[in-house]
Amino acid sequence: MANGAGNNMVTVLEHCRVSPPLDLSVTENILPLTFFDMQWLNWPSPGCVYFYDFPCSTTVFKQILVPHLKKSLALTLKHYYPLCGNLITPKTLSDSTTPAIRYLKGNSVSLVVAEFGGTPSQGFDHLSGNHARDVDKLFALVPELPPGSTHTDVHNNIHISPVMSVQVTLFPDHGYSIGYRNSHVVMDGRTLSNFIKTWASINSKQLIGEDDYDNLDTIPFYDRSVIKDPKGIASILLRDCLRTRHQKDYKKASAPAVHNNSLVDATLILDRGQIQGLKNLVSAQVPHVSTFVVVCAYVWTCMAKTRAALGQEMNNENQVEEHFIFAMDTRDRLDPPIPSNYFGNTIVPCLATLKTSELVREKGFGNAVKEIRNALYENINNEEGPLKGLETFFDRIEATRGQTKFGVAGSPKFDNYSADFGWGKPKKYEIVTEKFGLSGSKESEGGLELGFCFPEIEMHAFTAIFTQRIT
């Protein structure tokens, strides 16, 4: 079911399971985890929601939209069958189970069909807006993953957990939303984006009577042999993950609490001209800088200044280190490159570190730009390639224990606003489980949407500081 304090706004109409078309030749498929996947074993499951402006009645929703979405989801899962399966992981290092995604014939994905029943002022236009909204109300549109279980036999002690759930919510006479929650262990943002585009494409074709579903360029590539691991990184990361699984410090620093009615979510838009203006501000220090680097650096400095303005974490500031975590996709950086439709994870973490004083001073923005760029290039321009140091990932995170750190989720490369199910493109895309999420802008070509999740007082202070230098 949907979760959060906003749950009383949503009525569940149906809770069902959706399976791919039955293939009698398949009884079990095992997809082993790679070291790229192992990094995320201790990470919370991310969630997102798409809003679609398509006014319809409850009757039309239940009799037309939902049946089409169920049918197209089943056809999509024919290609993305691991999403119906379960993540199988050992409980301890002494267990011999190899971590994998296991699909058994008859496995399915949880689908919640719901209807918004709150007041119109808190409904579709409110929740799909850019202004500050209560996070719990957005969480009511995102399903929980079904609970996992522990299974013990004479050979193994394993944990079995579902990897994806979906919720479709009607806002009567206004529109609908599609919310997802998935295990990061199973797929990264590009794979999730490919899944959603595939589902949307199949549904659109279905509406006009086309049935050429097997030739989409987002159909996944599953060959794990393209991932080479001569250094045994997978074993190292699995060992470190199981060793640290119960330590709270390894919960993702950027993930806000699921149930916390003091948190609000807001979106800030940067158009191409404003982004160029940020680049101009640091052109003397860093002549050539990418959009991603300059925007993330600006957010990092604004967050440090916000904490300073609110009197947070500023004691002995010269000794306080802050860390910005971001991910780099290695699909086209490995040798040989991996296909863009590869199913799984292929991203590596990058860590930028500065003292608080280096962020809040006059040249703090330029310092942040240089540090993030250096962290990115360190993972690119070295003899070992983008995998350098990945085996020490948990050690590096452990070294930051007790220090301020946050990360960015999403990417403008995924084109989330192209996910048209045949009833129109999304009005709004929202990452609801991150402190800072980034996506391409629907309103401005070359622009960005920046989603933030903070306590309300912090959001007011951050927004004021953020907009000071935006022209």
Shape: globular
Query: Mind summarizing the main beta sheet?
Result: 6 strands, mixed
Strand line-up of the largest beta sheet: 1-6-10-11-3-16
The structural class is alpha+beta
Describe this structure in words.
- With 471 residues, this protein is of the alpha+beta class.
- Helix content is 28%, strand content 24%.
- The strands form 4 sheets. A 6-stranded mixed β-sheet has the order 1-6-10-11-3-16, covered by helices on one side. Strands 2-5-4-9-8 form a 5-stranded antiparallel β-sheet, with no helix packed on it.
- Strand 10 and strand 11 form a beta hairpin.
- Keywords: Acyltransferase, Transferase.
- It holds the Pfam family Transferase.
- InterPro entries: CAT-like_dom_sf (IPR023213), Plant_metabolite_acyltrans (IPR051504).
- It comes from Heracleum sosnowskyi.
